[in-house]
Amino acid sequence: MKKIIQTDNAPAPIGPYSQAVLTGNTLYTSGQIAINPVNGELEMSSIQEETEQVMRNLKAVLEAAEMDFENVIKSSIFISDMNNFSEINAVYSKYFDEATAPARETVEVANLPKFVNVEISMIAVK
């Protein structure tokens, strides 16, 4: 049985999908981009600020499911330019203890929704 996770502290879906789905003890988040949930605007002043907003959105979704970054077992990072990898990774790494960091892949893609530079999704387990 699945439970839909929804919070006003992360951007509302812009299509036929949920912010996250909990099935059993496993949470699957949808990809988050740098939409500020307060004003609906993209936060793209720098790649660092963009990545911070993505991580804040993911934190809000995790919290809505009564989890945090320690529960994350897998991350998928999609970026539009691999030259931004080190800046994105520097922000991302602030949210995880390196000794217990989740599995991850980082993939360069041609385009992302709203032509953002980074989108991240996660899988977490209670």
From TrEMBL:
| Record's protein name | RidA family protein
Concerning Pfam families, the annotation shows:
Ribonuc_L-PSP (PF01042)
Q: What family does the Swiss-Prot or TrEMBL record give for this protein?
A: Belongs to the RutC family.
Database matches in PANTHER family: 2-IMINOBUTANOATE/2-IMINOPROPANOATE DEAMINASE RIDA, PROTEIN HMF1-RELATED
The protein's matches in InterPro entries, at most eight in alphabetical order, are given as:
RidA, RutC-like_sf, YjgF/YER057c/UK114
Which NCBIfam families does its entry note? Rid family detoxifying hydrolase (TIGR00004)
